[in-house]
Amino acid sequence: MLARAEISGLELVLTEMNKADIGPALQSGTIDFGLCPAPRGKTDLQSKSIYSEPLFIVANAKTFGDVPPSTLSDIAHKKFLLVPDACGLADTVRFLFENQNLEMDP
Which residues are CB-neighbours of 103 under 8 A, at least 6 positions away? Predict the structure, then answer.
């Protein structure tokens, strides 16, 4: 991405911001693009998927031991630690479960 911007003569500034700040910054013209998890719900912003990666569950050996890859239904009733949703990861994980009609234990 950086090489293409340089060839095109674009000024590219990368900075980190909270998910909640991206929408208002786009709407006010402060930024041109935001890279974040897919927006949920109604929005007047346009989005396009540009990248995907695997989501890993990390657990200690006592919890899972040596097990094959898990599906969401395999882990739906395990206890999770989700960090505050400033970056969008917790919201994305919740959406994955909701999308598969699976409930996470509170």
Answer: 76, 97
pTM: 0.54
Q: What is the dihedral of CA 103, 36, 60, 81, to 10 degrees?
A: -50
**Helix segments in 9-75, DSSP class H:** 19-28, 61-64, 72-75
**CB-based contact 90:18 (threshold 8 Å):** no
Cα atoms in the 13 Å half-sphere on the side-chain side of 8: 8
- Structural contact between residues 103 and 97, judged by C-beta atoms closer than 8 angstroms: yes
Q: What is the pLDDT of residues 50-104, one digit of tens each?
A: 877 777 777 776 766 666 777 888 888 877 778 777 777 788 888 888 888 998 7
